[in-house]
Amino acid sequence: MRLFNKVNFSIGKLQGERHLEGMRITSDFTEVTNGHYLVRVGTTAEIKNDDLPAVNEQLPLAEKIDIVISAESAEKIKKSLPKVKGFVFNESAWPIKNNGNIGFAMSDLATGQVFQFQKQDVRWPDSERIMKKDYKEQAKVGFKVDYMINLCRILQEADIAFANLTIHKADEPQNPEPMKIEGENKEKDQKITIMLMPAQI
């Protein structure tokens, strides 16, 4: 069995609207989409079912799962995860079957709890068609995540909700050109231009 950590449940806040509300949970990943973006987070370290503690006499679920839960449930599970480090499962949760319903168990060995939730009746889009499509790669650019976060915050402070990212073709692969991020607040007649050197290309 593979385990679910806080990152798996954090993406629930990125949930979509109307019929796409909620977060998909399978045995291998969690996933959210709003029709414009699709975010998938793989599960973490694999562990034998026999090595997981029985919580409230509930054993780990042996069969595969594919369900949708609400963003509220995902957030509650995330906040309930044990903070104690030491064992691979201490900061994680795993699926169990409780009275015929699927839930999540968590334990720090001293205490344990089972989180039960209502499955959402949602028809999830065919995300595998998007994930596994044979895309033709144009460019792959590496960047520091904290740089991108800070730069996006500048755009947010300028009340810019939409920006353009341009990747320039380098004449020599070993000498990559900077990426350009451009945004404009037309009401304030303010433009922001950011040149970001890629970490790798």
How would you describe this structure to a colleague?
The structure is a single chain. The protein is an alpha+beta fold. It is built from 4 helices and 10 strands. The protein has helices at 6-10, 71-80, 127-131, 145-157; strands at 23-26, 29-33, 38-42, 66-69, 94-98, 101-107, 112-116, 163-167, 179-185, 190-196. The radius of gyration is 21 Å and the shape is elongated. The mean pLDDT is 86.
Task: Give the uncertain stretches in residue-range form.
Answer: none
Our count of helices gives 4
- Calculate the terminal CA-CA distance, rounded to whole Å: 36 Å
Q: Would you identify the CATH H-level superfamily of the largest domain?
A: DNA Polymerase III, subunit A, domain 2
Order of H and E elements: HEEEEHEEEHHEEE
Strand order in the largest sheet = 3-2-1-4
* Structural shape: elongated
CATH topology of the largest domain: DNA Polymerase III, Chain A, domain 2
Per CATH, the architecture of the largest domain is: Roll
Let me know the number of strands: 10
Rg, alpha carbons: 21 Å
Quick structural overview:
With 201 residues, the chain is of the alpha+beta class. It has helices at residues 6-10, 71-80, 127-131, 145-157, and strands at 23-26, 29-33, 38-42, 66-69, 94-98, 101-107, 112-116, 163-167, 179-185, 190-196. 16% of the residues lie in helices and 27% in strands.
